[in-house]
Amino acid sequence: MPENRRTAVVTGASSGIGAATARHLAAAGFHVVLAARRLDRIEALAAEIDGTAVACDVTSEESVAALAAAVGDRLDVLVNNAGGAFGMAPVAEASSDDWRRMYEVNVVGLMQVTRALLPALLASGAGVICNVGSTAGRVAYEGGAGYTAAKHGTKVVTETLRLELFDQPIRVCEIAPGMVATEEFSLVRFGGDQARADAVYDGVREPLVADDVADAITWMVTRPAHVNIDELVIRPRAQAAQHKVHRER
Ligand code: 8X3
């Protein structure tokens, strides 16, 4: 890693909020380590922003250990963005595999990356962790239980970590986005069904886009070292609450 630049790790950096956050942090002066499973994508983005691409599956301890080795002994910012939703079945018809995958990536993966990079974050003397949660970590909605349970997990892990590290030179934050139209989130959730994915944003004139969330994350992690943004809920103007969405048809 470059000696004289602040360094940030972004997981899930191959698309969506992760890729946008990598770009924003690079523009803010960080050397960004892009971590994701799809190496071809993050290598292209790393070349664009003069960052470093590291292939990483956050659910694999070996893979996360390799990420930590690549980062080295000093790190300023960790954005735990890797996550996702799989399926939208009601509890009565839920897929155990989908639920396990959601817990693995949104909770266990986040823990594994945090655990591995914590020594480097502490060594910087002013590290900051920003976990990407969701408004799904604040409420329940029909068909969402596997994902809302996992994102409630993201929130609680964030709160726990802040308590455990209360006397250490590190900040622990969570951003909880609502409706964000990215190229993959809903498509992945619905197993590649583009029509169902598009229907999520149907008639919503301006859902958030990845840049909106990246902008907020960059603001959160660049506050003075004594300022901890515990949590930030961010929604489009059209979404007054999870079920209260203004759709123009
Ligand atoms: C995404 C927000 O509303 O699809 O994290 O659960 S929602």
TrEMBL record:
<dbReference type="InterPro" id="IPR002347">
    <property type="entry name" value="SDR_fam"/>
</dbReference>
<dbReference type="InterPro" id="IPR036291">
    <property type="entry name" value="NAD(P)-bd_dom_sf"/>
</dbReference>
<protein>
    <submittedName>
        <fullName>SDR family NAD(P)-dependent oxidoreductase</fullName>
    </submittedName>
</protein>
<keyword id="KW-0560">Oxidoreductase</keyword>
<comment type="similarity">
    <text>Belongs to the short-chain dehydrogenases/reductases (SDR) family.</text>
</comment>
<dbReference type="Pfam" id="PF00106">
    <property type="entry name" value="adh_short"/>
</dbReference>
<dbReference type="InterPro" id="IPR020904">
    <property type="entry name" value="Sc_DH/Rdtase_CS"/>
</dbReference>
